[in-house]
Amino acid sequence: MKCKITRNAAKVILREIEKEENENLKLRVFVTHKHGDHAHYGLDMSEPTQNDTVVETDKGIDVLLQSDEPLLDGVKIDYLYFPQEGFVITNPSQGNHGDH
Q1: Tens of pLDDT along 48-75?
Q2: pLDDT value at 24 more than 70
Q3: End-to-end Cα separation, the chain, in angstroms
Q4: Side by side, which strands form the sheet with 3-5?
Q5: Are strands 26-35 and 62-66 parallel, antiparallel or unpaired?
Q6: What pLDDT is stored for residue 100 in this prediction?
Q7: Is 86 left (phi over 0), alpha (psi -120 to 50) or beta?
Q8: Three-state DSSP class for 83?
Q9: Using an 8 Å Cβ cutoff, are 89 and 18 in contact?
Q10: Neighbours of 65 (CB within 10 A)
Q11: Quick check: 32 pLDDT over 60?
């Protein structure tokens, strides 16, 4: 499984990971709901389970992805400041570019 984190997103995520209450946790990307041929995604901090794949990213952040969810393979995590500040999670490898 693959996961890409942009530079903007990595800065925000690393600040969260470094908090004391998140000391033993990893970033999790999950599917909030699916419709048609794509999904909507969410982020959380949690411990790995036996159903997870731990994906190492080029930003030094390990990401938990549910192994049996194909719509998670290839997710891209970005953080935008405009038009609205926040995370944007898409999956270009699955045709989901966040454009609807």
Answers
A1: 999 999 999 999 999 999 999 999 999 9
A2: yes
A3: 25
A4: 3-5, 75-80, 86-90
A5: parallel
A6: 41
A7: left
A8: coil
A9: no
A10: 24
A11: yes
Task: Count Cβ atoms within 10 A of the Cβ of residue 13 and give its class: 0-12 exposed, 13-18 middle, 19 or more buried.
Answer: buried
Phi then psi for 2, rounded to 5 degrees?
-125, 150
Whole-angstrom distance, CA of residue 31 vs CA of residue 44: 11
Residue 90's pLDDT band, with cuts at 50, 70 and 90, is: very high
If DSSP codes are grouped into helix, strand and coil, which group holds residue 70? helix
**How far is 80 from 62, CA to CA, in rounded Å?**
21
The closest of 2, 22, 16, 14 to 76, measured between CA atoms, is: 2
Q: Give pTM, 2 decimals.
A: 0.90
- Chain-wide mean pLDDT for the chain? 92
Please give the domain boundaries of the chain with CATH numbers for all domains: 3-94 (2.60.300.12)
Half-sphere exposure of 79 (CA within 13 A, CB side): 11
Round to whole Å and give the CA distance between 75 and 4. Answer: 6
